[in-house]
Amino acid sequence: MRVIGLMSGTSYDAVDAAAADLSLVGDSLVLRPLGMISERYDEELREALAAALPPAATSLAQVCRLDTRIGQAFAAAAARANRELCDERAELVASHGQTVFHWVDGGRAHGTLQLGQPAWIAEATGLPVVADFRPRDIAAGGQGAPLVSLVDLLWLRGRPGTPVALNLGGIANLTAPDGTAFDTGPACALVDAAARGFSGGRLAYDVDGALAAAGTVHEPLLRRLLDEPYYALPAPKTTGKELFHLGYLQDALAGFGWLTAEDVVATLTRLTARTVADAVRSVGATEVIASGGGTRNPTLMGMLAAELPGVPLRTSDELGLPSQAKEAYAFAVLGFLTAHGLPATEPTSTGARRPSVLGSLTPGRGGLRLPPPAARRPVRLVLE
Ligand SMILES: Nc1ncnc2c1ncn2[C@@H]1O[C@H](COP(=O)(O)OP(=O)(O)O)[C@@H](O)[C@H]1O
Ligand SMILES: [Mg+2]
Q: 0.90 cut: is pTM over it?
């Protein structure tokens, strides 16, 4: 089955679309990558989204507009992926949507909201769409995240030692082979906020880690940032830009006087490296396999390697899964599981009472025709 996975993470920089040809062979799920494309959000939509995200207040009118416009952006990416990667022969779209709020209170997730109305995707492609992956896991008592952990577990099964999958998006999350999975804290979120803030919006991120490389870590600021209670919470735990946003950074900077952009970005990059490394050590990793946009920041990757002596740091590309598209491929897998009636969560990762078949389904132009339910979930993911 040819499935298009659509993802935009907490950085809300672009909609990533990955196409995969997936098939069940015995107890393996075989994935043949067909490629990926990335459609940047236009600047106006990006600004409207940024203005609506917490801690800002918004209106239901604005939520409706964003749901539509994000849905249209996802639809454009899906239609292009179907054309350019699938010869117009895709059979299913799996859309994560854009998280705008993840309601966590007292260590429990109570709700989560992803915008990007799937009707637009179904209308533009004619294909059935699986969307709204997270809420079902929350209804089953889980955190609704990390969902990619199941794909990581299937993918890294059988690899020697304790390989840990690490995604460096706006937020960093990891999956260990025993199913432990959690958000470690910010990956690029605070670095992006600082780069934007200091450059007056000219820079969306610290391109190639240049600012961080030119700066010096400010130890008192680093210590203050490391005092954040989130890092000491036990797993499973999730976080987002509800916590790690520009205002959070401004509060942390209060009282330190004037610091250069370079020094602040170097300190934030070190914060990411330190908190990720601590988390990686806490699960006994013997190897780290990284993915996400953060892998394109050589200063971050250098600091992370330095924080993890003796633990090899690789990117998922080396194992055959393009690091920019890993999450989009992972959602293609989750959508495939849903279409086959298979649960796509791992209770040890999300803290749910039981594994759930995820998502809600929007029929395609031909109505809702699903493959026959599969007897049992595959135990490994094999890349072809
Ligand atoms: N060339 C680069 N140099 C430094 N950072 C980069 C580069 N390319 C991407 N990034 C970082 O990756 C982030 C986007 O990563 P992505 O995996 O798309 O995250 P998300 O899943 O949160 O959208 C950007 O916001 C930026 O911080
Ligand atoms: Mg992104």
A: yes
